[in-house]
Amino acid sequence: MTIRTLRDYGQHYRPRMACLKNVEVFVVEMQDPKSGVKGADQKLNVTIIPHVINGQDILAWIVTKMKVTTEEAQAFGTMLVAYGYIYPLQNHRKLVLVPDSTLYRFQTPYFWPVQKWPAEDIDYAIYLARRNIRKKGMLEPYEQQHYDNLHKWMNPKWDFIVMQATEQYKANKERKKPDRVVLDCQERAYWIVHRPPRRTHSAMDYGLDRLIDPNAEEVTGEYCNIFLTQALMRSAVKSSMSLTAFVKFVTTHHNHDPFLTTPVPSNPWITDSDEFWQLNSRSVDIPTKLSVERWVLSFWELISDPRGRVDFKLFLKKEHSAENMAFYEAAEEMRWGAASAIPEKSQFIFNTFLKPGAPRWINIDGRTMGLTVKGLVVPHRYVLDAAQTHIFLLMKKDTFYRYLKSPVHKDMQKRALVPAPHVFTDAQLEANVRNRNPGVSPILQWQQEEEEKAAAAVAARPIDVKAMVATNKLDRK
Predict the structure, then answer these.
(1) Residues 335, 338, 340, 341, Cα dihedral to 10°
(2) Mean pLDDT along residues 344-362
(3) How far, in Å, CA of 126 to CA of 29, rounded?
(4) Can you tell me the distance from the alpha carbon of 362 to that of 321, in angstroms, rounded to the nearest whole number?
(5) Which PANTHER family match (predicted)?
(6) What residues contact 457, with CB distance under 8 A and at least 6 apart?
(7) Three-state helix/strand/coil letters over the chain
(8) Is residue 16 very low, low, confident or very high in pLDDT (cuts 50, 70, 90)?
(9) What is the strand order of the sheet 86-88 is part of?
(10) Which of 219-228, 250-259, 329-338, 393-402 has the lowest mean pLDDT?
(11) Which of 159, 152, 143, 121 is nearest to 335 (CA)?
(12) Mean pLDDT lowest for which of 175-189, 232-246, 301-315, 453-467?
């Protein structure tokens, strides 16, 4: 991009800012009590919300004021909703002007796009923490995802964020209920524009303008040059190294890619034979030779395959180090499980793996152990990351290579199946279509997996030697 192009960009940006200012003047005119859109009090659930308008009145006013067609007026109204000048009261995630009785309200000027630029992550974290307190942990799925990410990124500041959210929550409780509801709707509408859910279009998603003050008189090429310089100052890998690594990966995984190599015994999507899925299912007793060969490629390939993980656990049990894999799985379950179960799971993990004298105590360095135990005082999803990474690297660099040389793996290589490829005639293919198997129900498969997990948890439970001795004495008597 040349300096001339940057200057042209600055010249192009000035009309855009003038357009935004004209939009704000237009929105102020829409709120005029005499000539603007007529609003009325509306009862929402059990609270009366003042100055509520509907989409039909907004559309009619824009058509009359701007002398445009209905389609153009609806497009302009949708732009006002997308930029946050007007927000829906009920379906807050639908940032579109619906020309019917859908209820809307004008956003307060404090939350207009140019007044708060850009939206800071720490402000969003305080808002989500306050909302989490008010909703008692029942956030919407996309809000919960943003909350977890911010909690991980801002973990050193999280005590300050929770303190600010608690103070704001207490101050907000002193307001009248209609004022609380209106303020909550305004804040939610602001953040749905600036932090939209995934796979949702946002009018605020653009790059260069986010680093530019919209209240400035003009935009020069210097600002754009700074942005492009910062964008280029990142670590990069030589293209030759990237291509070499890519070729090596493709060569290694060529035989395991069904798009590059014909699956054995046959492709179930073409022949309607489900034998391929049965041979590679989770609960198969003896895996195929191709699956066993894939376990050798990397430690991640081994534990990603449920059957390979079972074989690796058998080896760990014989080496008296099964607690490493048990801790890794417990940390994964805590990371991806329900938020309400985190305190209970963290206490179980501490008592089983980390507590001095624990029945399945894991061997990690003192610094990592200290940080992990200290973090479990106020547990969250990522509190076990350091200990889990330590155990993962220990198994990857040491245990994995001993497993490859062990009799357990060599015996599995000998027993692995080598299915013969199918050769179907046209008549047999038609018969396969007629006799197509609907497959195993996902619900039944999930129930079976839950039963297997429960049985594994019972088997992994520490043994109380004193209770066993007492039981044996009673049996003898």
Answers:
(1) -60
(2) 91
(3) 33
(4) 9
(5) LP21163P, REGULATOR OF G PROTEIN-SIGNALING 9A
(6) none
(7) CCHHHHHHHHHHHHHHHHHHHHHHHHHHHHCCCCCCCCCEEEEECCEEEEEEEEHHHHHHHHHHHHCCCHHHHHHHHHHHHHCCCEEECCCCCCCCCCCCCCEEEECCHHHCCCCCCCCCHHHHHHHHHHHHHHHCCCCCHHHHHHHHHHHHHCHHHHHHHHHHHHHHHHHHHCCCHHHHHHHHHHHHHHHHHHCCCCCCCCCCCCCHHHHCCCCCCCCCHHHHHHHHHHHHCCCCCCHHHHHHHHHHHHHHCHHHCCCCCCCCCCCHHHHCCCHHHHHCCCCCCCCEHHHHHHHCCCHHHHHHCHHHHHHHHHHHHHCCCHHHHHHHHHHHHHHHCCHHHHHHHHHHHHHHHHCCCCCCCCCCCHHHHHHHHHHCCCCCCCCCHHHHHHHHHHHHHHHHHHHHCCHHHHHHHHHCECCCCCCCCHHHHHHHHHCCCCCCCHHHHHHHHHHHHHHHHHHHCCCCHHHHHHHHHHHHC
(8) very low
(9) 40-44, 47-54, 103-106, 86-88
(10) 219-228
(11) 152
(12) 453-467
Q: Rounded distance, CA 440 to CA 447, Å?
A: 12
Residue 372: CB atoms within 10 Å:
23
In the numeric block, which tokens belong to residue 93?
């995630």
Fill in the amino acid letter for 45.
N
User: Which residue is listed with tokens 């080598």?
Assistant: 418
pLDDT of residue 19: 57
Residue 110 corresponds to which tokens in the numbers above? 């404090």
- Between strands 40-44 and 86-88, the pairing is unpaired
Query: 26-80, pLDDT tens digit by residue?
Result: 888 888 888 888 888 888 777 788 888 888 889 989 998 888 898 888 888 888 8
Please report the pLDDT score of residue 338 as a whole number. 85
